TrEMBL record:
Organism: Amycolatopsis cihanbeyliensis
Main location (coarse class): membrane
Matching PANTHER family: ACYL-COENZYME A THIOESTERASE THEM4
Recorded topology in the membrane: Peripheral membrane protein
Annotated protein name in UniProt: Acyl-coenzyme A thioesterase THEM4
Membrane-spanning residues: none
Family as reported in the entry's similarity comment: Belongs to the THEM4/THEM5 thioesterase family.
Domain (Thioesterase) ranges: 64-129
GO cellular component annotations of the record: cytoplasm; membrane
Keyword tRNA-binding in record: no
Molecular functions (GO terms): hydrolase activity
Enzyme class: hydrolase
This protein's UniProt keywords: Apoptosis, Cell membrane, Cell projection, Cytoplasm, Fatty acid metabolism, Hydrolase, Lipid metabolism, Membrane, Transit peptide
Amino acid sequence: METEPAVPHHNAPAAGSKLGVHYAQCFGCGDEQEAGLHLQSTVGEGRTVHSQFTVTEAHQGAPGLAHGGLLACAFDEALGATVGNLLRKPAVTGRLETDFRRPVPVGSILYIAATLDGTAGRKIYVSADGRLDAEDGPIAVRARGLFVMVGLEHFTTHGDPEALEKFREAARNNREDWNINP
Ligand SMILES: CCCCCCCC(=O)SCCNC(=O)CCNC(=O)[C@H](O)C(C)(C)COP(=O)(O)OP(=O)(O)OC[C@H]1O[C@@H](n2cnc3c(N)ncnc32)[C@H](O)[C@@H]1OP(=O)(O)O
């Protein structure tokens, strides 16, 4: 199947919009996960989303340095936020590749710029660069993801139905932040 340019949903938030927390318990962005990444994202021009996260002591692998798997988590979140908010269709990560180019010290801020690269049927291709301490800082991590669009039954069948209902209630009350309906 041929890859086509990804076309943002007509209700996708405009450039400059700050994206809210999509789920309070999410390790990537949730505000009820004390040791989580607390990633914050803003829609950029075109098919881009800019995210930031501050590396804390809770995120270490080696002393004073971020754990690689945790950095991959930040990219999963940043890419997922890009897919979810620009396309406004439920999708999950099928494949995530990360290139670790420089160590990321505790205390640094990672600036992640993600772009929707294209779609092919249910497949969504998305990629991102993570730069150290400034939007034009040196690239520390690069990632490419393949997300797969899923029906809401993916979450009802495999997830926690009670938590999902609370999530849907929050989404109904805050449609501007997140819309789980395709
Ligand atoms: C705002 C939101 C932010 C959220 C950020 C966090 C996002 C996440 O972390 S999601 C959690 C992690 N991911 C998961 O748990 C997903 C687990 N995997 C699954 O449920 C399934 O394997 C799933 C849904 C991805 C695909 O299964 P299924 O629906 O049966 O589709 P399937 O036919 O296998 O694949 C669809 C297409 O994707 C392709 N594909 C699926 N997985 C991969 C992969 N790993 N590599 C390459 N291609 C793949 C298939 O080849 C197929 O391609 P084609 O249409 O060309 O034949």
